[in-house]
Structures are given as C-alpha cells and as structure tokens.
Amino acid sequence: MSEQVLDRRALNRATLARQLLLARHQIPALDAVHALAGLNAQTSKDPYVGLWARLTDFAPDDLADLLHSKQVVRACLMRCTQHLVTAADYQVVQPALAPMLARVQRSTFGKRTQGVDLEELVGLGTAALTGVTLTRPQLGRKLKERWPDHEGSALGWTFQYLAPVVHPPPDGLWGRKGGVTPFALAEDWLETTLDEPDVGRLILLYLAAFGPATQRDLHAWSGLSRLGDVVDGLRPQLVTFTNEAGIELFDLPDAPRPGPETPVPVRLLPEFDNLMVGYRDRSRVMTKEQQRRVCDGDLIAATLLVDGFVRGIWKLELTDDTATLMIELLDDNGGGDVVLTSAERKAVEAEGLDLLRFVTPELEHRVQLV
C-alpha cells in the first residue's frame, strides 16, 4: 500500500492541534509547556505571549510561579538558544543535546580555548558553582585564575556549553530587561541527577509537539544531525506519511490529525514562536515569499495567523499613554495586497485588543492594520 499523502492544509491543522492553536485550552501552564516541547525564550516576554495565545485566562504570574518553584527552567537548549522547558523535560532534552552544544563550543570558542583542558575546565567550573549562582563574567574570572592567558568570557561561555546549567529567576520573569544572567548547576537547582542521554525520547517529545515532521525538520528544531539510525530504531513506535513532495513524514500513532477544513481562530503569535522555528520546511504555515519577511537573518518576527496561515507580522509602538498594535498584512507573495473579510477583520482587531490588554494593561489601546 502507498503511504497516505498529507497536503499543506492537513499538515497545517495537525501542527496547530499539537501547538494548542485550534482553540484556547483550559489547562495548567505547566502542562502546556510540556505539550509544546518548550518555548523559545530569547526575550523575556515571548513565552508569556505564546502561552497567552494558547491558554484560557493565562496570567504572567502563572509562568513566573513555575520558574520560582523550579517546575520550569530556562536554559540554552535547542539550536543553542534559550528555551523554557519543564524540569522533567530538561532531564531528557539537555543530555540528548549535549553533543550539539559541544560542537557549538568548538566552532565558536575552539580557537580561543586552545591549550585548555576542557574536562578540567568543567570540573573547576562545577566546583565553583556548587551550591551558589554566578554570572558568566564571575565564573570566567574564576576560571581565568587557572588559565590567565585566556579570555575569561571564552572560558565562561565554554563552561555554559559543556556543563548542564540553568538560569534561575529573576531570569525569565515577565518584564525583565537585559542585565547579567546568573546560572546554576542544573542538578543543584533541580536537586536531582540528570538522565542518561536518550535521543529517542527527545524525538518522541518533538513529534508529540510538532508532528507529522521529516528528519530534516527534526534536525532544524534540535540542532542535532545524523539522526537516521535513531529514527529507524523508532519506526515500530511510529506511523509514516508523505508530504506533497513525496518526502517521508513521521508521527505518533495516536496524535491528533484533524481534517484540513477544521476551523481555526485568528491568532497573534510572538517573535520566535514554536510554529515558526519548529521546521526546516515551513510551508505548512507560510509561503517562501512570506518567510523572507518573517525570517530576517536570526530574527523571527511576531506573526498574525488567519485560517491557520501567516497573514501578517506585527509589532508594538508605545507612547506615554498609548499602545498601538501595528499589523502589516502579507499576502502569499509577501506583499500587502491582502483582502480580509469583514468577520476576519473584526476578529483580528478583537484579538489585537486582547493582546494589548494582556501586555500593556495600564495604557490606552489601538489596533492599526497596514
């Protein structure tokens, strides 16, 4: 029998179901962070807006409380970028990603740490961090005492890449702006021993949140490579499909795959949202022309979804008393020739006002479609 072909709309609806975007869900924020396989946390507010878009009655304190209680942690993980994940998932994700993080250390700081025994560096850094939190510059200065001819910043970054560390609060809290980020040993902070590396568990976590997906999608999300043997070993636990280009897709047997005509509400998603960074092939949510507008170098714009697909990018403009949500509409060619129905326009404006009330409750609010 030939494998079932999933077209663009079928993949879109399956993805939105996994990413909790077919409707707002009345579930605890902790369950949502797990279901999403984590949230990108390059900036402090993005995970909060991402959860607001997916949950009923979500408040910033819901996530802040999880960070303070150590049920959710912020750490350098997928693609060597900052993410929020549950403490339980961190124990799966970090050991599995360790080879990728070590590769990034070699490519970024290899020349600047020549002559340094990296195993000794990890040992000394672990001893210095045991029972305390330190900023990267503070740890770098301690390590420089052993290697005075090397840059403290390179030594500190190297430790962060090679050792399992997390960034405790106030890092990751709503409204935190910049500042020097402290970190702690993960096993100290979580008061547990990390699991042994198991890339298979990482792949299953990914497929639950992002499937159906290709091997290249998995590589793009995780930063890992050469996962063919691991995926092959998981085949008895998986189902397979093909996309319209004939490329094999993997998924969990019992995962939701709603019909392609399933109705989808308007949604406003933050910068670096999971939906935009979880795949190598992003055609299930936007065209290549739109992607050139949404993905600008290392930046991923905040997006508007209409009928489950990208129809715009947005940003906030603030004055002393007014917050304006500026939405630039995008057609399939990446231009502004978009025609929204009256109902769609009203839905976009209503969602925009709700977002403004969430982000800037103290200001007057305006939504402007460009």
From TrEMBL:
PANTHER family recorded: LMO0824 PROTEIN, WINGED HELIX DNA-BINDING DOMAIN-CONTAINING PROTEIN
Protein name, per record: Winged helix DNA-binding domain-containing protein
InterPro entries per the UniProt record, alphabetical: AlkZ-like
Organism this protein belongs to: Kribbella italica
Domain of life: Bacteria
